[in-house]
Design brief:
mainly alpha; single chain
Length: 579
Amino acid sequence: MRSLNIIFLFFFITVRSLYAQDVARERPPSLTVKTADITGQVDSLLKYSEEERTCRPEKALEFARQAFELADKNHLLPRKLEAMVNLAEINIMMTYNVNAMEMTLKARDLARELADKRNLGHTYRLQGKIHFLLGDYNKSSEYYFKALQLFEECRNDEGMFRTYNDIGVLYSYLGNDTKALENFTLVLKKATMLRDQKGLSYSLNNLGNLYEGKKNFKQAEKNFREALQISIQTHQLYYQAINHMNLARICQKTGNFHESADHYSKAMTIDSAMGNKYDLTLCYLNLFDYYNLQHDPGNAMRSLMKAYSLASENNLKGIKLQSAKKIHKFYKNEDRIDSAYKYAIIQFQVKDSMEIDNANSKLSLAELEYQYAKKEREEKFSQQRNQIFLITSIILALSLVIIIALFLSRQIIKTKNIYLEKQKLALEKTLLTEEVEFKNKELTVNVMNLLKKNEVIINISDQLLQMEKTGINESTRDEISRIIKALQKSADSDSWEEFEVRFREVHSDFYDKLIKQFPELTPNDLKICAFLRLNLSTKEITELTGQSQNAIEVARYRLRKKLGISNSQVNLVTFLSQI
């Protein structure tokens, strides 16, 4: 182990020095070009953004943003579109999905306005990538093939092979290795033909992952090594780190632990220098398997806890969930029941959180798509209205004025009646929605008031307790004790009764449906269900009920059993909101 640490230190110093040489060419924070050619400035910013994308994405994002602002200010629409596509691409790479979708939709509209098929194809491809990240694979494939059709129409080879690569990744993820291999091979051929080193690197890497999944480690290793050489030659630090990590994983599977340690060291050094916390955390997670294969449980557990810690600090919920699962299994095998139970609870919490985050993200993206679809409908309606006006004008010039006037009058009255009827229905629906929203807000305010009320009662009880200790005589102390108990009883019963009355006003049939489906639920279970129906946090439920957070967590766990929720993927709050 001492020799392994020396190896890590050696490669840290070596790769760090290489990285320092590479970043010595760093661009200034804001470009100052002494030229009146604004178009040239925008092009230079876009070029720098492309160069920095796989080395320092934050810097690439800054350059792309400057290019967008400069092009927008000077009404350079084609350059503005290029900057928007660039910004969307970088946001996807940094997993800012909502920002990426917003920029992609804006770029799509501008591409249509400019009749730019190439960039329109890129916006469809980016929409496909975003839906892939959100797990909507049907929508993802739909956008990918739309993009492919546009790239074929404008004969854009670069766009075509990037889309083929994305389709290959989708097939691979869905378990269709045959189609994935077909697409990755096609990408490799096109990248070779176009002499696109970057495309060649990630296509080799994807093929390596595919071979690794088939346990063809020899071919996977060959692909990873070729990809690494290209990444080094083209100074793509981001891909170098990925290639080193993939090679480390292959080497440990084939028993070459010395070289595996070498690659892990290089990958972690680059990730640390670039601030790539996601891949760095993933390296620590893979190191757990590395040390396990060498029967070194101490270092294995330290690496796993480091992965868990980094994932928690940086809100990397996917890796946090994987780490928690492995920690739970480790403690379970060690017969450390308390620790195993703790991380089992954490697993449920992270899963619940991921479900909520994913739902919120999908909701935000759906709203953005709705707004842009609405805009498209309005523009289409405006165009149709203009066409009708033109046709009507011609008819007015050629036909009898009275007949046309009567016809138009009848049509206008009919249209107006339909419009008024729709407006009436829309108004009724809006009023109903606003009434429900108002009651929900009123209920939320009431819950907050109850929390405040309980807090005041508890404070008064604490002060009375202090007085009880210093009471003059025993009768005085007894009286104070009686008052404290009355206050606490009032806090518990009055709070719940007041809350239940308010809750039934908004969700009148919630209890009836719940008891009908699950008659074995206790009154305490129904309380917890009501709180969860309002999406209250464990802390807020604790303050309302006076129970400890641990007690509430246990109550939630038991409630899942009583509700028959055996699937850990099912979110408890979502389940109750559907009752």
